[in-house]
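Hi R.,

As promised on Friday, here is the backbone we talked about, encoded as structure tokens. Could you run it through your design pipeline when you get a chance and send me back a sequence?
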């Protein structure tokens, strides 16, 4: 944390003999009173604007432009059968989490990004992303390749039904408590938005696990993903905010502008929306 220390020094005014003579001459000419009045006016502190009741009002705080966000990028929520459902799910900044879900939404612009998948050329549902996110994913994989790092896509879009199957399978293997920390409920998974991709590498045997964050590929993604509009969605030590465990393999597309702010300020998507102001 940066601390700013302000030091104020008292001004010392020294009166010389010449100044005393000048003051005496002002008495004779009648200029002294005018001079003193002028000096007093100059010394008057600036007045703080008052409100209608006469109370001093504080100066308005300005919001940096990068923290100003158009209203269309905020979640539009409606309660459906006791669940908070996002009514503008195609919003590229839709905040999908355990509190806000997508219902049975399916994006209408899903495409297959031209990147290596762990399952090869097989035409699977999870080989797709929304068009804008897919294009930027291709750029990110190409950027890593320039640095001699080779990424592999593991899982992109997942439907409501597929997510439901995953959660049930996780519960059978690990129990309810552990399952809900690792797998989102159907309708509340970012994968359903078509904006998220799980990523690994051949050097890590295509595993998606916490040690991936310590690989060269995992470190590169954490450092450079924002340059392509992606964020590390579930960072370490942010579990209380995201309600999910650390996932160094899970990257979410939010656009370059928002991604840069989130990266620079070390925020989650939830923290980003806590700070941005609607315009």
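Update: got your reply. Pasting your designed sequence below so it's all in one thread:
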């Amino acid at each position: 944390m940066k601390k700013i220390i302000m030091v104020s020094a008292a001004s010392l005014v020294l009166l010389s003999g010449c100044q005393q003579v000048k003051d005496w001459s002002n008495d004779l000419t009648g200029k002294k009173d005018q001079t003193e009045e002028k000096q007093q006016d100059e010394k008057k502190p600036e007045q703080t604007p008052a409100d209608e009741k006469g109370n001093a009002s504080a100066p308005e705080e300005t919001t940096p432009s990068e923290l100003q966000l158009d209203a269309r990028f905020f979640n539009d929520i409606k309660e459906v059968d006791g669940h908070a459902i996002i009514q503008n799910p195609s919003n590229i900044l839709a905040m999908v989490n355990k509190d806000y879900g997508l219902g049975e939404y399916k994006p209408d612009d899903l495409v297959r990004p031209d990147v290596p998948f762990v399952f090869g050329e097989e035409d699977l549902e999870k080989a797709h992303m929304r068009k804008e996110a897919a294009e930027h994913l291709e750029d990110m994989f190409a950027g890593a390749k320039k640095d001699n790092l080779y990424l592999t896509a593991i899982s992109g879009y997942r439907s409501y039904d597929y997510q439901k199957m995953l959660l049930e399978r996780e519960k059978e293997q690990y129990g309810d408590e552990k399952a809900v920390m690792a797998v989102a409920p159907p309708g509340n998974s970012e994968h359903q938005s078509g904006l998220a991709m799980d990523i690994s590498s051949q050097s890590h045997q295509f595993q998606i696990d916490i040690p991936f964050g310590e690989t060269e590929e995992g470190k590169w993604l954490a450092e450079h993903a924002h340059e392509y509009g992606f964020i590390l969605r579930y960072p370490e030590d942010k579990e209380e905010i995201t309600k999910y465990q650390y996932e160094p393999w899970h990257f979410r597309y939010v656009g370059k502008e928002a991604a840069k702010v989130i990266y620079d300020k070390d925020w989650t998507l939830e923290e980003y929306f806590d700070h941005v102001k609607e315009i």
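One thing I noticed while checking it: Strands lie at 68-69, 77-80, 83-86, 110-111, 129-130, 151-155, 196-201, 230-234, 247-253, 277-278.

Thanks again,
M.
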